[in-house]
Amino acid sequence: MPATKALDLAVDALAERLGDARLERDAPLAPHTTFKIGGPADLLYRALTQDELAAAVQAARELEIPFFLLGLGANILVGDGGFRGLVIKNDVDTIEWLDETRVRAGSGVKIYHDLIQMTVARGLGGLQHYVGIPSTVGGAVWQNLHFLSPPPERERTMFIEEVVEGATILSEEGEVREVDHAYFNFGYDYSILHDRKDVVLDVTFKLDPTPREAMRDTIRENLQWRDDRHPDLWLYPSAGSIFQKIEGVGAGRLIDQCGLKGHVLGSAQIFHKHANIIVNLGGATSKDVRALIDLAQSTVKRELGYELKTEIGMIGEF
Q: Which of 4, 58, 297, 304 is the most interior residue, by most CB within 10 Å?
């Protein structure tokens, strides 16, 4: 059977399983990313419940349709050619209190503002450190979300793993199962999800009673700290840090030393406040961003001898 015909049959089967009306065709992806860059997906499905999320992933796996799971679209760059296959938008936003200190949140819940505001209002601490960072619950666990906090000393990095008790996952073997904290094998910018094709359906957080005013102080100071260094996503869409951390040196410092801070190619710029961030000045393409990435890597390698490695995901066709 010709490949095109086989794909058409797979898409028909997918529509039958998920509902034809729920599948968006030739769907723009740029609005679903913090970079506001990227071409269309062949198919887009918005999963509203855990069952829908698991069903969509299982259907794509069984029908051998390439798929990508999309949360808030941070830390990724979507190619100008878009994505050939199915993009599953995770809109699972259920929140359930298990007891006075434990909360179970769907993997599509936004850490900020939604989950932070709700937990702080209850006088529970642990998540207030991550204000201003665009991430869903699932994305936070995937990358072991972290931030240099608490203020004012900022002596250590706070990791989301510190408040993760366990989770419900759809395993790469197709089994819905409960896992504990240890399963994720957390590290810096790492969890087991980097090496296994598991999908997080929900996460249970164990929080600690904390004075509300102390948490609000942390929130105010962390937001100010970020505002001084990071772009306002409304004005300067971006994907956060582009290159992996270089211990004791800092990728941004190296790029700055090479005189590239503020450099513009097309409609993309190496951010004038933080050289490890590239921003969309309006109408930037993935080609513009990739050109700046290549420029930073080649210049730093030539002038300073360091190898910059990207930490953002490259999705789709470039």
A: 297
pTM of the model: 0.94
Measured between alpha carbons, how far apart are the two ends of the chain, in Å? Answer: 29
Q: Which residues pair with 183 in a beta bridge?
A: none
Annotate 11-33 with b (16+ C-beta within 10 A) or e (fewer): beebbeebeeeebbeebebbebb
Average pLDDT score, the chain: 95
pLDDT tens for 92-147 read: 999 999 999 999 999 999 999 999 999 999 999 999 999 999 999 999 999 999 99
Query: Measuring CA to CA, which residue among 201, 150, 145, 154 is closest to residue 178?
Result: 201
CA distance 284 to 276: 17
40 to 80, 125, 224: CA distances (angstroms)? 8, 40, 35
CA–CA distance, 318 with 313 (Å, rounded to integer): 12
Q: Measuring CA to CA, which residue among 238, 219, 250, 26 is closest to residue 128?
A: 219
Q: How far is Cα 185 from Cα 171, in angstroms, rounded to an integer?
A: 15
How many Cβ atoms from other residues are within 10 Å of residue 212's Cβ?
Answer: 14
Give DSSP secondary structure letters for 87-132. EEEE----EEE-SSSEEEEETTSBIIIIIHHHHHHTTEESSGGGTT
pLDDT value of residue 4 = 62
What are the phi and psi torsion angles at 274 (to 5°)?
Answer: -150, 110
- My answer on whether omega of the bond before 152 falls inside 30° of 0, hence cis, is yes
Identify whether 209 is preceded by a cis peptide bond (ω within 30 of 0). Answer: no
Contacts for 53-56: CB closer than 8 Å, 24+ residues apart: 53/88, 53/90, 53/92, 53/107, 53/108, 53/170, 53/199, 53/201, 54/170, 54/176, 54/199, 54/201, 55/17, 55/18, 56/18, 56/86, 56/88
- Predicted local confidence at residue 184, as pLDDT: 98
